[in-house]
Design brief:
The complex is a heterodimer of chains A (139) and B (146). Chain A contains 3 helices and 5 strands, in the order E-H-H-H-E-E-E-E. Chain A has 139 residues and is of the alpha+beta class. In chain A, strand 3 and strand 4 form a beta hairpin. With 146 residues, chain B is of the alpha+beta class. Chain B has 2 domains: 99 residues, Thiol Ester Dehydrase, Chain A, CATH 3.10.129.10; 34 residues, no CATH class. Chain B has 4 helices and 5 strands, in the order E-H-H-H-H-E-E-E-E. Chain B starts with 10 loop residues before the first strand and ends with a strand. Chain B is elongated and about 55 Å long. The chains are: A alpha+beta (139), B alpha+beta (146).
Chain lengths: 139, 146
């Protein structure tokens, strides 16, 4: 895929999106291994039920990692200047996450041409789990 | 109980992490990554990289890679059972790779509350350096529910 250029992009343009496989207990076990976060809220159904929660749920940072993939599938990682997320809802087992992004601003900053993106990770019903923004440098 | 704002400016005990290809391989598998520069040492070398590339959010994992990652909240008297991750952000300066040793140096930079103290926010800013060179700024906002 060709690297997007500053001049070819307009505010409102969407970047290529993807939808994940349903989040499973295996996904969360793998993420615990990969991330080092073994909190029982994400792994141990007996523990969460004892806390009055219906089931284990995804690590928030799993969704942010998916949004990171959305960015690095679009541009090489070294183009990313900043990346931030707000966690707005819990992701439950069985939910697929739809990762989308669009250009919201074109700017020149620190002598570089950059675009600001708004990114969203939502379930298939449209409930936003994470709202993120990223600044990417382009030629 | 409101957290005492005297903790703004408090230093978090520093730590260092040696980044391994093994860890990055599992992170890639967990997140559905298919680009081999994120999990295969040979593919990374062929791409001209010194090691497997750490993906954008992995700095958070390394920041948490210590015996008591939320010791600073315990110092403030917070109940970790009431903690939620509110926000997370990164400013990137240099890419990092398997084989790198990274130093994490953090500080509490803000404490504020909303809804008459029902939600309290603790902001931690961490400088990540490799051999003294700044590679990433990591900001974590933890929320403590009343």
């Amino acid at each position: 895929m060709a690297m997007p250029t500053f001049d070819s992009l307009n505010v409102g343009d969407e970047i290529p999106s993807f939808t994940t496989e349903p989040v499973s207990r295996l996904t969360l076990a793998l993420y615990a291994t990969g991330s080092g976060d073994h909190h029982p809220l994400h792994l141990d159904q007996d523990y969460v039920r004892s806390k009055g929660i219906k089931d284990v749920f995804a690590h928030g940072m799993l969704g942010m990692a998916y949004l990171g993939r959305l960015l690095t599938q679009w541009v090489p990682q070294e183009a990313i200047r900043s990346f931030g997320v707000r966690f707005t809802a819990i992701t439950w087992i069985g939910e697929r996450l739809v990762c989308t992004g669009k250009v919201v601003e074109k700017l020149e900053q620190d002598g570089e041409k950059r675009v600001r993106l708004e990114l969203t990770c939502a379930n298939e019903q449209g409930e936003a789990k994470h709202k993120a923004d990223a600044v990417v440098a382009l030629a | 109980m409101l957290i005492d704002k005297k903790h703004i400016g408090m230093k978090v005990p520093p730590h260092s992490v040696h980044l391994t290809a093994w860890q990055l391989k599992w992170f890639a598998k967990a997140t559905g990554e298919t680009n081999p520069i994120y999990f295969d040492e040979e593919a990374a070398r062929k791409a001209g990289l010194p090691g497997v590339l750490a993906p954008p959010t992995f700095f958070f994992c390394m920041d948490m890679d210590k015996e008591h990652p939320f010791d600073y909240l315990e110092t403030m008297g917070c109940d970790l059972g009431k903690m939620l991750h509110g926000e997370q952000s990164f400013v990137y300066h240099k890419p990092v790779y398997s084989g790198d040793t990274l130093d994490f140096d953090g500080q509490i930079t803000d404490i504020y509350d909303k809804k008459n103290g029902a939600l309290q926010f603790v902001v931690k800013d961490v400088k990540v350096r490799r051999k003294g060179e700044l590679v990433c700024d990591v900001r974590s906002v933890m929320v403590i529910r009343d």
